Amino acid sequence: MNLDAVIYLQRNGHLTGSKNRILDIGPQTIYFARAEQIIEIVERLGQPRPDAMTVDRLVHFSTPRADERTTMLSEITDLANIEYEAIDVCPGLKNTNILDLNFDELPSRLRGHFDVVLNFGTTEHIVNQWNCFEVMHDAMKVGGVIYHQLPASGYLDHGYFCYTPLFFRELAQANGYEIECLAVTHAGENRIDALGITCLAGDTMLNEPAHLADNNRVPQLNLHVVLRKTIDQAFRPSLEIATTHGQLSERMRARYSDLLQLQDRVEALQSELDRTVSPRLVRWLQKNYALLRGSGRAPVRLP
Which of 8, 38, 43, 184 is deepest in the core (most CB within 10 A)? Predict the structure, then answer.
C-alpha cells in the first residue's frame, strides 16, 4: 500500500489520537513513501516529528529492491503511537496473529476492538470469502471503518477474485454499514497474449483461437471502499438475485427473511418518498436505513 490511504483516514477523522487501533489484514509493506507523508502521519497523531535519519531510512526502503526488506506499515505506526495488530498465515515483523482466513474465527480479545481495519489486497487471495468478511466485521467497533483496496478488473494473473461495486453496496445494506467512499483508480494494464491465455475469435467456445489485436490490452482497476459500522449485529451475507428468472424458494426466503423484509420496506419507502419528499431527505434516509430495523443503535444525524 502507499501512505495516501493512511492520510485519507486521518484527514477524514477515522484515525485520530482517540481512535488509533488498526487491524491490518496481512501485514502491509509501504511502497514509495515520501518524507512529508511520514511526518504528517506522525504529527497528526500528536507525536514529535521523527528525526531525519529515521525518516530517510523508511523512505529509502519503501522502494522495493531485490534481497532487501521493504518498509512495513508497522514501522510507521510505531512512530505515530498507533496501536497496530495484523493477522496472517506467516509470522510478521510486529504484533502479527497467526490466523487462517479460510478456517479460523477472530480471537475473542480482538472482537469489536479496532477503529480501523485495512484490507489492502489480501482477501482476493483467499478462497473462503465469507470467513474473510465475517472476521473483518467482527473486528470493527461500532463507529469504526474498514478500508478495502482490492482488484476490480483486469487482474487476470493475480489472486482468485475481483470485486464489484454491487458486492459492497449490498454487503453494506445487509450489515448496516454506511458507505463513506466507493471509487475506482487506475492500476496499469494486462496484455492477454503475454499471459498465455487462449483467445477465441468470437463469443462462444465454438470459435477458433485468434489474436485480439487492440482488445488484447485490458486495463486494471482498483476498487477503494470505506465502510463504517453503524450497528452491533452478527455478520450477514447479502443475497443477489437480480438475474434469476423465478421466485425465491420458501426455504431460501425464510433463511433471508429479515434481510428481504428490510429490502422490501426500504424499496416501498423509497417509492413513496420519491413522490413526496425532497431528494436531500431521501439521501439522508438511505444512509440511515438501519433505523428502520428498530435497533435504536444506528446514528441519527438530521439533515
Answer: 38
